[in-house]
Amino acid sequence: MIHDIIEFLHAWGVLGLIIVAFTESSFFIVPPDALLIPMSVLEPSKALLLAFYTTIASVLGGVLGYYLGRGIGRPLLNKFASQEIIEKAENLYTKYGMGAIIIAGFTPIPYKVFTVLSGVVKMNLVQFIIGSFIGRGARFFLVATVVMLFGDEAIDIIQQYGSIFTLIIGVVFVVIFVIIKKRKAA
């Protein structure tokens, strides 16, 4: 069924990509990468523009998730993720604040859990949006850059090394955020 949804939305081109990026950030299950990657491979010269559209739509969808979290709250979180994932998200959130949004936006962690959780805990909306732009932008522009550099081979590279690479960069984000936080506290 998910494959059929991807194929249907892929036929819509950029509009389909924008719809997926927007809805995935608050409630949909298909990650925008499923459209961003093949569309970028087909037209590598437009990869960065597609990443830009994906980032904007994803952040706007994240704002919807934020407001859903403020309005509906925890019962909505329980529909998206297991209690274990929610507890991990809360721990990251408590420990890193905006850094958790950056990490969730970049890594394979379900971003929608963090958008809704941000609303539940009433995170500062400006910080939420900034963190979302950094995390989501880094992820989608990285995908676009890999496609531009490696063409058709990018699909295999992203499938084979994508999770490991995003995990490493996520750790780098955490280290940088912790250093900045410690310097502000000092």
Q: Can you describe this structure?
A:
It is a single chain. The chain is mainly α and 186 residues long. The protein has one domain (2-185). Helix content is 83%, strand content 0%. It is built from ten helices and no strands. It has helices at 2-10, 14-24, 33-42, 47-71, 74-80, 83-96, 98-106, 111-120, 125-150, 153-185. Helix 5 runs antiparallel to helix 8 (111-120) and helix 7 (98-106) packs parallel to helix 9. The radius of gyration is 16 Å and the shape is globular. The termini are far apart. The mean pLDDT is 82.
- Count of individual domains: 1
What pattern of helices and strands is seen along the backbone? HHHHHHHHHH
Q: How would a crystallographer describe the biggest sheet?
A: none
**What Rg, in angstroms, do the CA atoms define?**
16 Å
Brief account:
The chain is mostly helical and about 190 residues long. The protein has helices at about 1-10, 15-25, 35-40, 45-70, 75-80, 85-95, 100-105, 110-120, 125-150, 155-185.
